[in-house]
Write a structure and sequence with these properties.
alpha/beta, 5-stranded mixed beta sheet, 34% strand, globular, 5 strands
């Protein structure tokens, strides 16, 4: 499975909709997209994981790295995820306490 990334601006918040699998092979594309956004001055980012079918430790590392990048500029990185199998990964790794995970895109954008 490949990774599809669709980034758009929503009232000053960069929303990255992710579809597919985030693994050792595809995670660098997500990392590069977040790095490009931050490099372009986007410090309020929402990553929509609703279309993600698989997430491994490499993908988690990319999300943590993105969070560090935006926080270095006083920004925020919010996640949208309702899939129990992905939420379980965030809980098991303790990252559910690091990230703010929203049930819907509107609340994530409002919090960004």
């Amino acid at each position: 499975m490949d990774l599809d990334l669709n980034a758009r601006d929503h009232d000053g918040v960069s929303v990255v909709a992710v579809k597919g699998e985030i693994d050792v092979y595809t995670a660098p594309r997500l990392r590069d997209r977040i790095t490009d956004l931050v490099g372009g001055g986007a410090y309020r980012i929402v990553v929509d994981l609703e279309g993600v079918e698989f997430l491994d430790s490499t993908g988690l590392g990319v999300l943590v790295g993105g969070l560090k990048k935006v926080r270095a500029h006083g920004g925020s990185l919010q996640l949208v995820c309702t899939q129990e199998r992905l939420l379980k990964i965030f809980r098991i790794t303790g990252l559910a306490k690091v990230f703010v995970i929203h049930d819907d895109l509107d609340s994530a954008i409002a919090a960004a």
